[in-house]
Amino acid sequence: MSDELDYVPEDVLEEVLEAEKTIYPRQRAKMKPYPSARDVVEAVVEAVRSFSGHPDEFPDYVLEILHERGFDVRHVTMKRIWRTYENLVRKGVISDRLGVLYGD
Fold first, then answer.
1. Which residues contact 53 (CB under 8 A, 6 or more apart)?
2. C-alpha to C-alpha distance for 95 and 44, rounded to whole angstroms
3. Is the pLDDT of residue 65 over 90?
4. pLDDT tens digits, 6-51
5. Which of 55, 48, 95 is nearest to 78 (CA)?
6. Domain segments of the chain as ranges
7. Residue 60: which of 71, 44, 45 has the closest Cα?
8. DSSP state letters, 36-92
9. Start-to-end CA span in the chain (Å)
């Protein structure tokens, strides 16, 4: 008797799952993850390669890249983006293509 209860036809299973969606429509959507430091670094490097425009628009471009990758960018600040950019330039990972760093 337990063998009969273990088997659920695929079409019946799909029907039940669809019905549950209509019964419980207000379930909270899964939250997007916050970007890690590595994610921000990768986005800045990608942005430097493909960005063309005024340096003031650069942080928005980085945020757009992160958003397209599925991250929640509400708490990623411009200061964090510029600090990451500066560190990458000073370490020689990227060149100062935007021309925003002066001196050493």
1. 61
2. 12
3. yes
4. 676 788 778 887 877 777 666 566 788 899 999 999 999 999 999 9
5. 55
6. 37-91
7. 44
8. -HHHHHHHHHHHHHH--S-GGGHHHHHHHHHHHTT---TT--HHHHHHHHHHHHHTT
9. 79
> Contact 98/61 with Cβ under 8 angstroms?
no
What are 72's two structure tokens? 């929640």
- Which of these, 50, 32, 40, lies nearest to 97 by C-alpha position? 50
**Residue with structure tokens 């695929």?**
10
Taking residues 70-90, report their average pLDDT: 94
pTM of the complete model beyond 0.85: no
Mean pLDDT over all residues of the chain? 85
Q: How far, in Å, CA of 38 to CA of 67, rounded?
A: 15
